[in-house]
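task queued by scheduler; priority normal; single chain, no ligands, no partner chains; default sampling; output format set to structure tokens
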Amino acid sequence: MKKINRILTINFGGIGDEIFFLPTLISLKKEFPNAHITLALEPRSKGVKSLTDIIDDMLLIDVKGKNKYLEMFKLLIKARLGKYDLVVSSGGNKLISILLFLTGIKVRCGYDTGKLSQKLLTHAMPLNKNQYACKMYHDLIRNISDKNTELPEINIETREKIQNSVLIHPGVSKLSVIKKCIKTITPEIWAQTIDLLVSEGKKVMLVGGPDDKECIETILKTVRTKNFENLYGTTKSLKDLAELISSSEKFLCSDSAPLHVGVALGVKTYVIFGPTDVKALIPSSDKVIPIMANDNCPLKPCLWARRQTTCDNLDCLKITAAQIADSVCNK
């Protein structure tokens, strides 16, 4: 292959999606160590750059805004002017291959979405959603690199471990709430979980971001014990949160972006799972423990795969505080 000096990567989604994409970027850097890597992503996910030194530059493209077509045109212009040698895009839309072709970049990697992609891409790769998302993204570069990075890696200054500690991040993204994608237990169950963990002698710390304000307030009104540390509002950035997670012995969270930070840091992580796909969202590892209801729902996992909003019954989230505390203390 011709010498690769400049690489454009495109991955739209939330912070979690960008963390899933990191192994692909890391492998590209291993394969082309002197290459300049640019990541095109949504503005809401720009905080990922604070977690890694792999990304040299970012293009912020607001594909969820009112002017999404103008934003895509902006991306096309920047791609044509950027003198890139290689472009890698994670998009599964059939039109992605047209976009990549119009960039004029010689080496184009994307998913095989049919005959058009096979003709317009130099590397049309199979899309396999039935695997851990990091592996799904990494498939994009199988034809151009034999390097393999299985898990996300982030570069922060880790803190000293707090013995016997459990850090709890109960929230999910505001976008999930707006879209009625309920993916976690109620604040009342979180409060009961804190009470039980404290009664078991755990040093409990509670944290959350701006999106979690309502959830945190309800927890604080409901929880009985006062013997825990309320750290809500002390983390001002994704990097701050990552550093705090690194200090915890165990991390308990919802299916949201902080989960993937915990995975990347190698912290023992316990995750509340309901309607989403465990196999796609966490690696097979004894350091990542899913906590799930015994509901035997035949449609689970349904969110994203079968429906875009959560069902009314939510049997998949009928998880008790006792079940959660038992998992954290004994697994």
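post-processing summary
- The first strand starts at residue 6 and ends at 10.
- The mean pLDDT is 93.
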